[in-house]
Specification:
CATH topology: Aminopeptidase
CATH architecture: 3-Layer(aba) Sandwich
Shape: globular
CATH superfamily: Gcn5-related N-acetyltransferase (GNAT)
Radius of gyration: 17 Å
Helix content: 25-40%
Number of helices: 5
Order of helices and strands: EHHEEEHEHH
Distance between the termini: 58 Å
Strand content: 15-25%
Oligomer: single chain
Number of domains: 1
Length: 164
């Protein structure tokens, strides 16, 4: 694989099976092999239906998907500008170090810039060596913020507190 034959394009509905396969590979890489619950049909519904919940791009080599990035929109109340939250980015191991990840990030940045968006946010596992890759691209780690999440039973309990 050479760097100059990697193409990045918008994801299409027929990419959902390949995106699902990459999500499963990402979950294995992130030490959570059973974490992927989404199906290709759900990816198709949520990304390409009447109200898309995400956007995605695909990196190809020899017309074969070798990586992808998937993001949602967010909004900064302080800046008064929308942005992107990068939910997932993945490149197959055999395609790494050939500029695929950089091509995906650069395309996302160009899309954000062209839309007048203010920022691109992402979370990275503390042990993930990709942190150095992001830092080389100028993506800064924010020490002051600690991610929190509510889901499952805790979400149900919290929702039950709403008495209106």
């Amino acid at each position: 694989m050479s760097k100059n034959v990697v193409a990045v394009r918008s994801a299409r509905p027929d990419d959902c099976e390949a995106m699902h396969q990459m999500l499963v590979a990402l979950a294995v890489y992130e030490r959570a092999p059973d974490a992927v619950k989404v199906t290709p049909a759900e990816l198709r519904r949520d990304g390409f239906g009447p109200n898309p919940r995400y956007e995605a791009i695909i990196a190809e080599h020899d017309a074969r998907p070798v990586g992808f990035a998937l993001w949602t929109s967010n909004y900064s109340t302080w800046e008064g500008r929308a942005g992107f939250f990068l939910e997932d980015i993945f490149v197959y191991e055999e395609a790494r170090k050939f500029g695929v990840g950089q091509a995906l990030m650069a395309r996302m940045a160009r899309i954000a810039r062209d839309r007048g968006l203010g920022r691109l946010d992402l979370n990275v596992l503390t042990w993930n060596p990709a942190r150095k890759f992001y830092e080389r691209l100028g993506i800064a780690h924010i020490d002051e913020w600690v991610p929190y999440r509510v889901r499952g039973t805790a979400l149900e309990r919290l929702a039950a507190l709403d008495t209106n």
